Amino acid sequence: MTSHFSSDLLVILRHGPHGSSLLRDGLDAALVAAAFGQRVSLLFMGEGVMALVDDQQPDPLGQKGTSATIEMLSMYDIEAILVEQTALELFGLTPDELMLPVRLLTGATLSTLPTSHRLVLTF
Q1: Residue ranges of E strands in 1-123
Q2: Tens digit of pLDDT for each residue in 87-107?
Q3: Domain ranges in the chain?
């Protein structure tokens, strides 16, 4: 594993912006860790990639998306935004359609990513 992924905390986000609070909880954990000086990487997998789609609308029940929180990541020096490439393809998305620049990960790089972090949280 190359050192450019190394950080204190890897937060894996597997849930979409609507339907549960797991995505928001994971983003909050990342922001709190960063506020306390931890180096944080975020990995968006599965439905989690939908959180990065620009111009999110509230769901039918009025639950807001997470775009405002995601836009704050750079203010907390969270710059390692990693995305599972197969999940992006599954939802028919390209990196250009996402609100932040991301690094796409596949295969072996994706499977060994947790070993380069001191702590891993999955939401």
Answers
A1: 7-13, 40-44, 80-84, 103-105, 117-122
A2: 999 999 999 999 999 999 998
A3: 3-122
CA–CA separation, 67 and 52 (whole Å):
7
C-alpha radius of gyration, the chain, whole number: 14
Q: What is the pTM of this model?
A: 0.88
CATH number given to 3-122: 3.40.1260.10
Per DSSP, the three-state class of 98 is strand
List Cα–Cα distances, 107 to 6, 10, 76, in angstroms: 18, 17, 29
pLDDT at 84 over 80: yes
Alpha-helix residue ranges (DSSP H) falling in the chain:
22-35, 67-71, 85-90, 107-112
What are the tens digits of pLDDT across the range 22-64? 999 999 999 999 999 999 999 999 999 999 998 766 555 555 6
Query: In what helix (H) or strand (E) does residue 50 lie, and over which residues does it extend?
Result: none
Rounded to whole angstroms, the Cα distance separating 77 from 47 reads 24
